[in-house]
Amino acid sequence: MQKTKINVIAETSLLAGLAMILDLLTQPMSLGPWISFSFKMVPIFILAFRRGIKPAMLAGLIWGILQVAFGEAAGNWLNLTQGFLEYFVAFSFVGIGGLVKPWLDKAMTKKETFKGLSLIILGIFLGTISRYFIHFIAGIIFWGSYAPKGQSALLYSSIINGSSWLGETLACSIALWLLYPFINIFLKK
Q1: Environment class of residue 160 by beta-carbon count within 10 Å: exposed (0-12), middle (13-18) or buried (19+)?
Q2: Radius of gyration of the chain (CA)
Q3: Which UniProt key words apply to this protein (predicted)?
Q4: Which of 44, 57, 70, 95 is the most buried (most CB within 10 A)?
């Protein structure tokens, strides 16, 4: 039992670190500060599908902390509440994709490829929509004053955060779709 806990902690830390490395490496793929086509959340999703919500949310939190520690959050931190929401809460919420784990385990055991892939896409959707919902709320509350004249904070946040959500959801979905033939290896305990 103790060995399992150590394995989960080690995997959580390693995959959070890998997410940070992918985040740093895929910065050039961003089409600006708000538009991104990146698969940097893939390690967190792999952990969510392998170990469930709690370890994945912890990995997301560690990733958010690493972003702050490495200065990736610099310039995007307006105040303590906004920074906490967008770097600690939002990144933790990627782990919500692990909600599909019980059904994914069954589909993988029965070798139901279409069902397994569908559940992975659903998990990606749940994790990314949860993360970007927090960014959307923060966008309205904290970034709305940056909206172009005549544009509401709601529309501004929808456009900015919606474009990033779409790009990252597509990138993660494509990456995990391509990895799907090997995913059983990743998901075995």
Answers
A1: buried
A2: 17
A3: Membrane, Transmembrane, Transmembrane helix
A4: 44
